[in-house]
Every structure is written in C-alpha cells, then in structure tokens.
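[step 3/7] inverse_fold.run input=structure_tokens len=264
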C-alpha cells in the first residue's frame, strides 16, 4: 500500500521557513559539514566480530578533506521502510544541521518480497519512503543525495556481470529527476567495475573467506573501491567541490580500515 500524502510530508511538518533554512545554510559555512549516511549493510560500520567485512561508509572519509566528517547511520538488514519505521530517520533528522548532507542508499532489503516489515514496491512505496528522506533533509536545511544500490557480485555463464536490483535503480533515478535531487549512480558504476575486474578478481573485493563466499558485502579493497566511486560521483554532481574530495587517484592502504570492538 502506498503512503498517504500526509505521511510523505510528515517529516516536513516542523520545517522552518525556506528563508530561514537558506540563512541557516549560509551560517553553516563557519563550521564543519557532515555527510550523514542512511543505508543498509553494504554501507554500514562493521565491528571486530564481523571482520574482514567492511561497509563502504567506513572508507568514505579517506576521500574527504579535513573538515568534512561522516556520520554513518547505515545498519545491517534495513530497507527504506524499516529504517523509517524503527525511528532511525528521525534520529538522523534530529542531529542533521543546515549545510549538512544526507546520502540515502537502499534497495537490497526493499527487494525482500516475503518480509512485509522491509519490502517496498519500486514505483510506489519505495519512492514514497525515499521522499521522506528528501523532505526531512530539506526541512532541516540539509541537502538530500540519492545513491542507487551498489551491485552484488553476480556473473552469467559467459562471464558478464549482471544486474540484481530489478526496477529499484530506475525508480530511484526517476525520483531524483522528479525531485531535483543529486543522484550518485553506484549501481551502474559498480556493475561496470565488476565487469572490468572479471569473475575471479572480484572475489578479492567481496567478503570471500575460507568459510564464507559472500557476494553482497565487501572486504577492505571492495569498500575502498566503492567509496572511491561514490566520492567521484559527489564531485561529478557538484554536491562537493574539487577542494572537498581528495586521494581519488591514490592507492589507499587497506590497513587504514579498522574494526572497533562491538558496541555493548
């Protein structure tokens, strides 16, 4: 069932007037800006008990200049719907400030048709939930940014990387155009990268271990590669300027990735 218009706009009920939001954005130039991430396990912070699994959000700070920070709110197993229903978007919006950014990447779990707590339909409820993130960020004077879901590692018999996200990327692209929101096309870029790397080399980018063959989640090289794609998109779409993005051509040591102890 699609969300009602009231639900779609509820995140903006406490919005300040646009003139004040614009003024708040201008005032933000005197303080560090933060990139908030709302997403799933492909972006999320991982802990020592999950190593070497690595979310791309853990590597994104390596490509940002000093003064730009990352607040990674992505959580394993969440969809655009369950992230909202659990109050996680409310928590982000309570912290986000004028001049900040909200990067939104969902679809992996929106696709789970047998789970009503997470499933969304691409051209109705998926777009409706994404509108909540857009409206909520704008109401706080922050800039929403949509990122299509990074691709899984899947190849056909001829060795061609194949897409796995159905209509969700197209639905997000259409919504970004409709809403005038910057789009970071991780799905297309990651699919092209997996094709370039091939069947065997891509195993070294995903969480393949002696005991697990995981074609969804990344290890440090994979997370760094995807974060680099995202940083390039932030620059291409002019969400960030040339001085904001660093090390795009540099080799990033995997030793820079660390996994803190699990939260208690």
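[step 3/7] decode complete -> sequence:
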């Amino acid at each position: 069932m699609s969300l009602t218009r009231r639900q779609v706009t509820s995140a903006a009920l406490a919005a300040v007037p646009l003139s004040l939001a614009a003024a708040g954005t201008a005032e933000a130039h005197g303080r560090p800006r933060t990139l908030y991430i709302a997403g799933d396990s492909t972006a999320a912070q991982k802990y020592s008990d999950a190593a070497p699994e690595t979310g791309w959000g853990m590597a994104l700070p390596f490509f940002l200049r000093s003064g730009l920070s990352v607040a990674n709110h992505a959580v394993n197993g969440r969809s655009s719907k369950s992230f909202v229903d659990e109050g996680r978007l409310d928590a982000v919006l309570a912290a986000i400030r004028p001049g900040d950014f909200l990067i939104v990447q969902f679809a992996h779990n929106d696709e789970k048709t047998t789970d009503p707590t997470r499933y969304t339909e691409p051209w109705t409820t998926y777009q409706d939930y994404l509108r909540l993130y857009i409206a909520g960020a704008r109401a706080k004077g922050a800039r929403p940014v949509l990122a299509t879901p990074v691709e899984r590692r899947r190849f056909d018999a001829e060795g061609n990387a194949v897409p796995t996200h159905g209509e969700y990327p197209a639905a997000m692209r259409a919504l970004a155009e409709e809403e005038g929101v910057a789009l970071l096309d991780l799905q297309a870029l990651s699919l092209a990268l997996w094709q370039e790397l091939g069947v065997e080399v891509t195993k070294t980018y995903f969480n393949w271990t002696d005991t697990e063959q995981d074609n969804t989640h990344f290890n440090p090289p994979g997370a760094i590669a995807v974060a680099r794609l995202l940083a390039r998109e932030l620059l291409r779409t002019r969400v960030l300027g040339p001085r904001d993005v660093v090390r795009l051509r540099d080799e990033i040591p995997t030793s820079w990735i660390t996994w803190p102890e699990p939260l208690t």
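[step 4/7] annotate
The radius of gyration is 18 Å.
The chain has a mean pLDDT of 90.
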